[in-house]
Amino acid sequence: SQPLSLIAGPCQMESRDHAFMIAGTLAELCAKLGIGLVYKSSFDKANRTSLSGKRGIGLEAAMEIFADLKAEFGFPVLTDIHTEEQCALVAETVDILQIPAFLSRQTDLLVAAAKTGRVINVKKGQFLAPWDMKNVLAKFTESGNPNVLLCERGASFGYNTLVSDMRSLPIMAALGAPVVFDATHSVQQPGGQGGSTGGQREFVETLARAAVAVGVAGVFIETHEDPDHAPSDGPNMVHLKDMPRLLETLMAFDAVAKR
Amino acid sequence: SQPLSLIAGPCQMESRDHAFMIAGTLAELCAKLGIGLVYKSSFDKANRTSLSGKRGIGLEAAMEIFADLKAEFGFPVLTDIHTEEQCALVAETVDILQIPAFLSRQTDLLVAAAKTGRVINVKKGQFLAPWDMKNVLAKFTESGNPNVLLCERGASFGYNTLVSDMRSLPIMAALGAPVVFDATHSVQQPGGQGGSTGGQREFVETLARAAVAVGVAGVFIETHEDPDHAPSDGPNMVHLKDMPRLLETLMAFDAVAKR
Amino acid sequence: SQPLSLIAGPCQMESRDHAFMIAGTLAELCAKLGIGLVYKSSFDKANRTSLSGKRGIGLEAAMEIFADLKAEFGFPVLTDIHTEEQCALVAETVDILQIPAFLSRQTDLLVAAAKTGRVINVKKGQFLAPWDMKNVLAKFTESGNPNVLLCERGASFGYNTLVSDMRSLPIMAALGAPVVFDATHSVQQPGGQGGSTGGQREFVETLARAAVAVGVAGVFIETHEDPDHAPSDGPNMVHLKDMPRLLETLMAFDAVAKR
Amino acid sequence: SQPLSLIAGPCQMESRDHAFMIAGTLAELCAKLGIGLVYKSSFDKANRTSLSGKRGIGLEAAMEIFADLKAEFGFPVLTDIHTEEQCALVAETVDILQIPAFLSRQTDLLVAAAKTGRVINVKKGQFLAPWDMKNVLAKFTESGNPNVLLCERGASFGYNTLVSDMRSLPIMAALGAPVVFDATHSVQQPGGQGGSTGGQREFVETLARAAVAVGVAGVFIETHEDPDHAPSDGPNMVHLKDMPRLLETLMAFDAVAKR
Fold it and tell me: Fewer CB atoms inside 10 A, N or C side of chain D?
C-alpha cells in the first residue's frame, strides 16, 4: 500500500493571503514528513445551520486562488460542489471534486461530477450504512468514472451526535475504492450549539489514530491558525501549530498498519 | 384546532390516466369523510438508491397534469423540488413545495423555495433532532415566507432503519408551524434491499395512529392501486383499497385528539 | 379486546400512609372510569445511578403494606424483583412480579420468577430489539409459566436518551403475550443529570396517547402527589392531580383503538 | 505508561484439559511478546439468549481449575460474577472479578464485589454513555475499593447492532481508572441469530487496532482452537492460531501509542 495521504486546509477559503499562508505551512510540513498533500478549502458553505452563517468567498474568486496555489506548490486541490452546474466549472481547476455527505444520494449531482472525469471524494451520508456506499459508488462507475474515494465522516447516533464506526473502513475498502477518514467532521456535534454546529476538537487525534491504525488511504483534517475565530467549523478544526506532532504520530501508525 | 388534513397520492406521477384515477378515488373518499385533501406526486425521483431506479415523468408533463387535476377536483397539489431552478417553475402550478429530507439543510434551495411565496412542506432530515428544525424554519421565515409545514419522517436508528420519535411532534409544533406526519417514509428501510430501499407497509397504520393521537395538523400517506408493482416506494405505499378504513380510523382518533 | 388496564402507583413505597393515600385516590379514580387497576411500588431501587440514591422501605415492610392494600382495595399489586431469592418471598403477597429491563436477560432470575406461578411483567431491555423478546418470553413459557406481560420502556438512542419505537407494540403482541406500555420510564434520560437519572414528564402523555392508539393491553404510569420531591423517578412521574384528565383521555383513545 | 496487557482465554471454561491447553499456548505466546497476560474464562453464562444455551462448568469446578492454572503458569485470572453471593466465593481464588455489562448498574452486586478487595473489571453497559461510568466507578471507590478497570464493549446502535465509539476510551481514562477494550464482545450482534447472539470475528482486529492506537491499558480477546464449535460466543472468538500475528500487530501499535 501507498503511505498515508493528507487532505487538509482551512474549512473555508477566506482570502488569497490566508490560503497561501496555510498552504505554505502544510506543503513544507508534508514535504518534510513524506506525506502526499491534497489542499482543501470550500468556496461556499451551502448548508450552514443558520442563514447568518458565513458562506465563503465564491466560486470564481476561489478558482483563481486554487490555480495560483497549484502553480506555486504543485499539489492537487480539492473542493466541494453542491449543484450540477458547478461541476464542470470547478473541474477546470480543481483536481478532486467532493460530494457533501447530505448530497451523497443526489443522482444528478453525482453523475455531473462523474462526467468531469476528475477524481471524486464522496462523503458517506450520516444516514447511510457503509455497505450502502456500494450503490453510491456504482452511480459514478456506471457514469464512466471509476476514480472515486469513499470518505467516512460519522453516522447519526441519537440526536446531535455522530459516531465513527471503524468497521466502515474495511467494509468500504472491500467495495474497491480507496478510503479516506474525515477526522474533522466526524467530531461535529450537529446542531449542538443552537444556531450553529458544535464540535469536539479534542477527539480529532483520537479518531484519526484509530482510523490510521485500521488502515486508510488518506486522512482528512481541517486546520486553521486560529480556529476559535474561523468562520466555520472552528470547534472541530485543529490548530495549525498542532499539525506537525499530529501528522508525525499518524505517519508512525501508518507505517505499522501498512508494513 | 382544524380537523386532520391528508397529503396523499402515488409516490411518482406515472401518467395522466393514473393520476386522474387515484385523484378521483381520493377526492371522493375525502369528501365523504370531511378530510381536507392535498394531492401529492413526484415528477422526478432525484435520489434513487441506484442509477437504474425509475426517475419519473418529468417537470413539464407533470405541471400540465397537476393543472388539470386542480381544475377538475379543486384540491391543492404538492410536489417535491430538488434544485433552485425548479422552485419558480413548479410554483406556477403547485400549491405546496416540498423540500426532501436529505436537502433540508441546503440553504439556497430553501431560500429559493421561500421566495416563491408558496406554502412549503419541509421534511425533517433523518440526521436532525426535532429542535434543529428551528434553524430550518428560520431560513424560510427570514426569507419572508412564514407558510411552512414541518414534516416528521423518521430519524436514523443504527443502520438501514428509521425510528419515529413521537416526542418530535409536540417539539416541532412548539416552533410555531403546523406539523405533518409522513407515515409512508417513516417506515422506509433505507438501503434495506441492496439496490433499492425497502419498507414496512404493515406499520403505516401503527405509526399514523400514534401520530394522530399525539396530535398533528396533517398526515402524509402515499397510496397506489398496485403498490407491489409501483415504480418507487412500493414496499411502503398503502393499497388504495385500504385507504377508506385507514382514514376512518385516523379521523376517529383525530376527533379525540382535538376535542 | 379488554379495555385498557392501568399499572400505577408511586415509584417507591415510601410509607404505609403514603401508600394508602395514593392507592385510595387511584382506586376511586379507576372505579369511576372503569379501568382495571394494578397498584405498583418498588420496595428496593437496586440500580440507582449513585450509591447515595434512596433505596426504599425494604422487602418485609413492603409485603405487609401490600397485603393490607390488597385487603382494603381488592386490586392486584405489582413489584419488581432483583434476585432469585426475592422471587418466592415476594410471590407470597404480590400478584405480578416485574423483571427490570437491565435484568431481562438474566436466566436464573427469569426462571425463579416463572416458578412462582405468578404473572410476570418483563420490561424489554433498552438494548433489545422487540423481536428479541421472543427468547425472553420462551424462558418463562419453557419454565411452565405462560402468564407473561411484555413491557415496552424505550430503546437506547445515542447517549443519555431513549426512544419509543411504536412498532415494537404490534411486534411484541404478535409473540402472543399482552403488551404494556411504560410511559414513565420511556421518558427517562438515563444519566442525564450527572449523579441521577433525568426525565421528561411533559412527554408521558404524548407517548401514552401514541401507545394506546396503536393498541395495548395496559399502560404503566408512575404517579406522586409531589413528584419534584419524590425519592426516585421524580422528573418522570405524573402529578396525581393530573391523572384524572390523562386517564380519561387515554380511555377515549382506547375505545377507538379497540372498537 | 505500561505496555499493553492482555485479558484472554476461551469464553467458557470447558474442561481442565481444555483450559490447560489454551492457557499454555497463551502463556508461552505472551512471554515471548512481553505481554502481561490475565487468563479469562466464565464458569457460568448467566444471560444466554435462550434457555437451551450451554451454561458452563459451574463455580466449584472452575475455582479448582483456576487455582491449578495459577499454580502452573503464575498469571492472574479473571472471571465474571452475577450474584452478590458469588463475589466472596470467587474472590478466594480469582484475581480480577468482572461485572457483566448488563449488571453494571446493580448496586448490591457492585458493592459486594468491591468489598472483596479484589481488582474489578466492570464492563460499560451497552445502554450507558462513557461519562456515566463516573457513577459506576464511584460505587466501587465509595465502597473502599479503588482498584477498578473500566471496560468498553460497545454501545447499542439501533437493533441487533453495537458500535464502538473510540472517544469513550479517553473519556473513561479521564475518570482515573485504567481502560480495557473488549474486542470480542464489541463485535457481537445481539440477538442477531434468532435464538443466539451472532458476531463478526472479522472485525476483532479492526477494533482492537483502533483501540490500541488510541491508547488503552489492556485489550480483552476471547480465543478458542475451534471457535465455530465453541459452546458460546463462537462467532466472535478469534482462532487460537491467529493470536500470534494479531498480538504482534497490537504490540507494534501499542509501542507507537505509548512512545
Answer: C
Cβ of B138 under 8 Å from any chain A Cβ? Answer: yes
C-alpha cell at D8: 484472554
Best A132, A136, A142, A171 member to test B by mutation, with max B CBs in 10 Å, is A132
Which of D70-94 are b and which e, b meaning 16 or more Cβ less than 10 Å from the residue's Cβ?
beebebbbbbbbbbbebbeebbebb
- The answer to whether the Cβ–Cβ distance between A167 and D257 falls below 8 Å is no
Phi then psi dihedrals of residue A106, to 5 deg? -85, 100
Amino acid code (one letter) for B218: G
Q: Is the pLDDT score of C101 beyond 80?
A: yes
| ipTM score | 0.96
Q: Cell numbers of A68, please?
A: 495560483
Cβ of residue A189 closer than 8 Å to a chain C Cβ: no
Q: Is B157 near chain D, with CB under 8 Å?
A: yes
Return mean pLDDT, chain D.
Answer: 95
Residue pair C35/C247 in contact (Cβ under 8 Å)? The answer is yes
CB-based contact, C169 to chain B, within 8 Å: yes
**Strands, DSSP E only, in chain A?**
5-9, 36-40, 77-80, 96-99, 119-123, 148-152, 155-156, 162-163, 179-182, 188-189, 198-199, 218-224, 238-239
Å between B191 CA and nearest CA of chain D: 15
Q: Please give the pLDDT value at position D241.
A: 98
Q: Which of C46, C83, C159 sits opposite D107 (nearest CB)?
A: C46
pLDDT means per 10 residues, chain A with 259 residues, are 96 96 98 98 87 85 97 98 96 98 96 98 97 96 98 97 98 98 94 76 97 98 95 92 98 97
Query: Would an 8 Å CB–CB cutoff place C165 in contact with chain A?
Result: no
What sections of C94-191 are H helices per DSSP?
107-115, 133-141, 168-173
* Cα gap D20→D12, rounded to integer Å: 13
For residue D133, CA distances in Å to C189, D66, D153, D214 come to 15, 29, 13, 19
Q: C229 phi and psi, to 5 degrees?
A: -115, 15
**Would you report the helix, strand and coil content of chain B in percent, each value rounded to 5?**
45, 20, 35
On whether the CB atoms of residues A204 and A238 are closer than 8 A, the answer is: yes
User: What residues form DSSP beta bridges with C9?
Assistant: C222
Instruction: Note whether D120 and D97 are within 8 A (CB).
Output: yes
Band of pLDDT at residue D46, cut at 50, 70 and 90 = confident
Q: Which of C47, C107, C129 is closest, CB to CB, to D107?
A: C47
Of B51, B83, B159, nearest to A142 by CB-CB distance is: B51
For chain B, say whether C4 makes contact (Cβ under 8 Å).
Answer: no
Predicted confidence (pLDDT) at residue C193 exceeds the cutoff of 80: no
CB contacts of D158 in chain B (<8 Å) are: 157-159, 161, 163
Can you tell me the distance from the alpha carbon of B117 to that of B88, in angstroms, rounded to the nearest whole number? 10
Judging contacts by C-beta atoms under 8 Å, the chain B residues touching residue D157 are 158-159
Residue B75 phi/psi, 5-degree rounding, is -90, 160
d(CA A199, CA A215): 24
In chain B, what is the straight-line distance between the N-terminal and C-terminal CA atoms, in Å?
Answer: 9
Task: Classify B195 as helix, strand or coil.
Answer: coil
Pairing of strands D96-99, B5-9: unpaired
Residue whose C-alpha cell reads 385500504 in the numeric block: B242
Contacts of B143 (CB under 8 A, 6+ apart): A51, B110, B111, B114, B115
φ/ψ (deg, to 5) at A166: -65, -20
Specify the pLDDT at position C71. Answer: 98
Q: How many helices and strands in chain A, by DSSP H and E?
A: 8, 13
